[in-house]
């Protein structure tokens, strides 16, 4: 059990301090936060046009098909595209190291003689008591 | 003429009832079969984590494509043109928030409920109580919408117009959902979603192809026919429903940020074995839901062109009858065999949709009550899995009865509004706390509790003082006194307020527990080490 005095041995904390994990974390965040900003901004641009640029959105471009109809369809296309980009990125840049680090945690845990998967609920109960909640 | 109409409406009623009863029979059979395989708490809450990524993706789609989407959006597009399509876009883009930020870390670090992730690094009791309160509130709003929809649908499609008849239908839907959840838990609920999703997609594809056939696969001529029939030169431009652009912005925010805070969607990620499978399931859900929402434009504009807004509003003011009436037209019109068959099929699909979604919602809320509130707050984590499941089953009955009673009372409410509100509460109360728990090192218990209660209270308060309550012909409290808050969806104010409360709560207090728990959570969330 990872109480405060033995926390230095906690395999999770050991792994968390490793450069390999820090590198993995920054690679994950470097993708999701900018991409999150991109799709939210792109979506808000759509909402802005639907709310404040109605005439422009209602302009027909091909028969009765309007700019607004195409813009909405484009939102679908970009959603599919971003999901595909993320999946490809995660497959190549997240999963291999994530699996290695998971095995590292399990190896350290086994070496410590503890259960490979400790139950978080019991620990939390302790944390709850120790803070005097 | 009157005799003919009576006969057709009788045979139509009969066929719709037969089709619906076949769905009920099939899903009840599966429920009993799955019920025998539901032994542990893990089986009941999370289907033993045995659902495949693709299966779960289909089940997520089933959980998400509610009657509000199928009947509501088709109706909105049919009556208001372009504005209805904005709903579809928001509902879909929302899945990128789920995919990038929530699905995988949640799967890796949680166990059965949304609160598991918060409780990992924060003090369990206060955050579990808060999460349980918001889960129940969101699920109840969502349930109400579906129940009210069931009542409306019955009066519309089966010709039951008496209040007693409608109330009995709502009670029957409630009783069925209680049976699914109690007997079969997550395993049965998952298969009900999968069957329903397949039926709904099948029905939607069929109607879409028939609409496109009618216009020789020329979308442009479908759109111009819709515009002509509407008699509104701006039918294909935005602004017919949302006159105030700020109102549209508020709704748009609630839609895109709400999904990642919906408890019945989040708990679905615990049914798969790994984070990778969770990713696969979101991708499948995005594909299916995306295709579905594109097809809603064929249903909506098709109904506007072929049925016409007059006939649609005569059947139902909210426009919820657009899809079934379109089916009737495409089958050959009122009175024809094809019309009866097609309309019955679409009606039965709509019932199946409602039934599946309410089962998912009931399971999510009774799980949260049993696992968060009973297991970890009252019993302080000492309850066995069997005890928790027993409580979950009783909670299912209680929530089911509550939903039936409230559903009967809320029959006259607008369905889309109730769902929009559920999304706003989810985005305001749950999303800030989930995001900060996963990504902000300093985040504290006080921040989580303030964020959940602050977002919840603000969104509910704004609705009470909005045009929903005041100043319009359909308002709840007064039709003449103007509303204090002008927007019909609270998202624009309540979502930032939820984030602000979570931030403020964190900055004004100190906490020791998260100091080493957060690094642990990060390792778990990103690598899947120690995952349940």
Structural commentary:
The complex is a heterodimer of chains A (133) and B (532). Chain A has 133 residues and is mainly α. Chain A has one domain (4-116). Chain A is built from six helices and two strands, in the order αααββααα. Chain A has helices at 11-17, 19-52, 54-57, 67-93, 95-111, 120-130; strands at residues 60-62, 65-66. Chain A has a two-stranded antiparallel ribbon with strand order 1-2. In chain A, β1 and β2 (65-66) form a beta hairpin. In chain A, α1 packs across α5 and α2 packs antiparallel against α4. The model of chain A is unreliable at 1-7 and 115-133 (pLDDT under 50). Chain B is mostly helical and 532 residues long. Chain B has a single domain, classed as Sodium/glucose cotransporter, CATH 1.20.1730. Helix content of chain B is 77%, strand content 0%. Chain B contains 20 helices and no strands. Chain B has helices at 2-36, 41-46, 53-64, 67-80, 82-109, 114-121, 124-157, 163-214, 219-230, 245-258, 263-266, 275-306, 309-315, 322-330, 337-378, 385-409, 415-439, 445-464, 491-507, 514-527. In chain B, α7 packs across α16 and α7 packs parallel to α18 (445-464). The longest helix of chain B is centred in the middle third of the chain and has 52 residues, at 163-214. Chain B is globular. At the A-B interface, α1, α2, α3, β2 and α4 of A face α5, α7, α9, α10 and α12 of B.
């Amino acid at each position: 059990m990872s109480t405060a005095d033995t926390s230095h041995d906690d395999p999770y904390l050991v792994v968390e301090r490793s450069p390999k994990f820090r590198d993995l974390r920054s690679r994950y965040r470097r993708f999701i936060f900018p991409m999150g900003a991109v799709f939210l901004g792109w979506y808000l641009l759509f909402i802005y046009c639907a709310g404040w640029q109605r005439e422009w959105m209602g302009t027909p471009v091909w028969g009765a098909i309007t700019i607004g109809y195409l813009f909405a369809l484009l939102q679908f296309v970009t959603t599919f595209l971003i999901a595909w980009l993320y999946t490809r990125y995660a497959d190549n840049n997240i999963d291999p190291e994530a699996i290695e680090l998971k095995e590292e945690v399990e190896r350290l845990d086994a070496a410590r003689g503890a259960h490979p998967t400790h139950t978080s609920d019991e620990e939390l109960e302790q944390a709850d008591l120790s803070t005097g909640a | 003429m009157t005799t003919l109409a009576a006969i057709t409406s009788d045979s139509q009623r009969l066929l719709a009832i037969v089709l619906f009863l076949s769905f009920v029979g099939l899903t009840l059979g599966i429920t009993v079969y799955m019920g025998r395989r539901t032994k542990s708490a893990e089986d009941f809450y999370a289907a033993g984590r045995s659902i495949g990524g693709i299966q779960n993706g289909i089940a997520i789609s089933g959980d998400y494509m509610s009657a509000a989407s199928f009947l509501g959006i088709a109706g909105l597009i049919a009556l208001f043109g372009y504005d209805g399509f904005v709903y579809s876009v928001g509902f879909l883009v929302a899945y990128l928030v789920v995919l990038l930020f929530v699905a995988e870390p949640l799967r890796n670090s949680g166990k059965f409920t949304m609160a598991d992730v918060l409780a990992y690094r924060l003090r369990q009791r206060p955050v579990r109580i808060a999460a349980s309160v918001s889960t129940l509130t969101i699920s109840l709003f969502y349930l109400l919408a579906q129940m009210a929809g069931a009542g409306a649908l019955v009066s519309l499609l089966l010709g039951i117009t008496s209040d007693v008849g409608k109330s009995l239908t709502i009670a029957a839907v409630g009783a069925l959902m209680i049976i699914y959840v109690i007997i079969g838990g997550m395993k049965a609920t998952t298969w009900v979603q999968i069957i329903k999703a397949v039926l709904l997609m099948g029905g939607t594809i069929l109607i879409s192809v028939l609409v496109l056939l009618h216009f020789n696969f020329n979308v442009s001529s479908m759109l111009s026919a819709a515009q002509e029939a509407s008699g509104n030169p701006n039918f294909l431009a935005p602004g017919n429903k949302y006159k105030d652009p700020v109102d549209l912005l508020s709704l748009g925010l609630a839609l895109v940020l709400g999904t990642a805070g919906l408890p019945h969607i989040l708990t679905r990620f615990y049914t798969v074995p790994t984070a990778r499978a969770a990713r696969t399931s979101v991708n499948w859900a995005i594909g299916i839901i995306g295709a579905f929402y594109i097809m809603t434009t064929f249903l909506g504009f098709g109904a506007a062109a072929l049925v016409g807004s007059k006939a649609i509003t005569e059947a139902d003011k909210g426009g919820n009858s657009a899809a079934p009436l379109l089916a009737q037209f495409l089958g050959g019109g009122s009175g024809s065999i094809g019309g009866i068959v097609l309309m019955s099929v679409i009606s039965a699909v709509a019932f199946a949709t409602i039934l599946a979604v309410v089962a998912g919602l009931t399971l999510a809320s009774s799980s949260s009550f049993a696992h968060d509130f009973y297991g970890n707050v009252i019993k302080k984590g000492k309850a066995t899995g069997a005890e928790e499941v027993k409580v979950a089953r009783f909670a299912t009955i209680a929530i089911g009865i509550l939903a039936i009673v409230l559903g009967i009372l809320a029959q006259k409410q607008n369905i889309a509004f109730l769902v929009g509100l559920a999304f706003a509460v989810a985005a305001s109360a749950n999303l800030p706390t989930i995001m900060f728990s996963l990504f902000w090192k300093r985040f504290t218990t006080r921040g989580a509790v303030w964020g959940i209660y602050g977002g919840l209270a603000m969104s509910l308060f704004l609705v009470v003082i909005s045009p929903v309550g005041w100043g319009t012909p359909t308002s709840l409290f007064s039709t003449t006194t103007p509303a204090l808050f002008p927007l019909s969806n609270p998202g624009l104010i309540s979502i930032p307020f939820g984030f602000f409360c979570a931030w403020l709560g964190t900055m004004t207090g100190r906490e020791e527990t998260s100091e080493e728990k957060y690094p642990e959570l990060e390792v778990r969330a990103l690598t899947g080490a120690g995952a349940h």
